[in-house]
Amino acid sequence: MNLIILGAPGSGKGTQAERIIAEYKLPHISTGDIFRANIKAGTPVGVKAKGYIDKGQLVPDEVVIELVQGRLAESDCKKGYLLDGFPRTEAQAAALDKITKISTVINLDADLDKLLERITTRRICPNCNASYSTKWYGGSDCEKCSTSLVQRPDDVEATVKSRLDVYKNQTAPLIAYYTKKGMLKTVDGMQTPDEVFISVKKVLG
Question: Cα-Cα-Cα-Cα dihedral of 153, 157, 161, 167, to 10°?
């Protein structure tokens, strides 16, 4: 089962990806993780990627495709995988079609205005990565490990608006791309995480 999960920033993509890989025993192929590993290692492609990421821009297709193709060639992907964060553009999707065959594309549909509020009120534990919202959690420390919560630099309003604009302009057209191929399964991403996962399992069968 080769899956793609699509969704705007803040739509709960990361949460659902974690549940999918646990339920279906699939490796989680996240471009974000691939980028971070290469940036940390200081590889040439990692240095290139960092320059774009720091500006809130998408990494050029040729760089991303090279990284993803290498990852999909690894042995743990032979029985399936979940792609998260790739493809982001139609050009990337077309390139992916030449590399592998996708089974299903899960689209988490969400109200972008509500996502802006969801992301800007998000606070993260830098120790265990637990996530909280200032709308319902008034504490300044993580409930799980007591570490002080922080706001990610890219969760401030101006940056979030830029990320959502990038999504609308470059990534949203993928919905049409995969709908035409009959591969897209849309799930209401504004439900609770548990409700979203129940819907995801229904479309995966």
Answer: 40
**pTM here?**
0.78
Tokens 């479309």 locate to 203
Alpha helices in 59-108 (DSSP H): 61-72, 90-99
Superfamily of structural domain 2-111+168-204: P-loop containing nucleotide triphosphate hydrolases (3.40.50.300)
Structure tokens at 108: 């988490």
Give the residue numbers annotated as catalytic, written as ranges. 13, 88, 122, 152, 163
Contact 65, 49 (CB under 8 A): no
- pLDDT tens-digit series, residues 148-205: 999 988 899 999 999 898 888 888 889 999 999 999 999 999 988 899 999 999 999 8
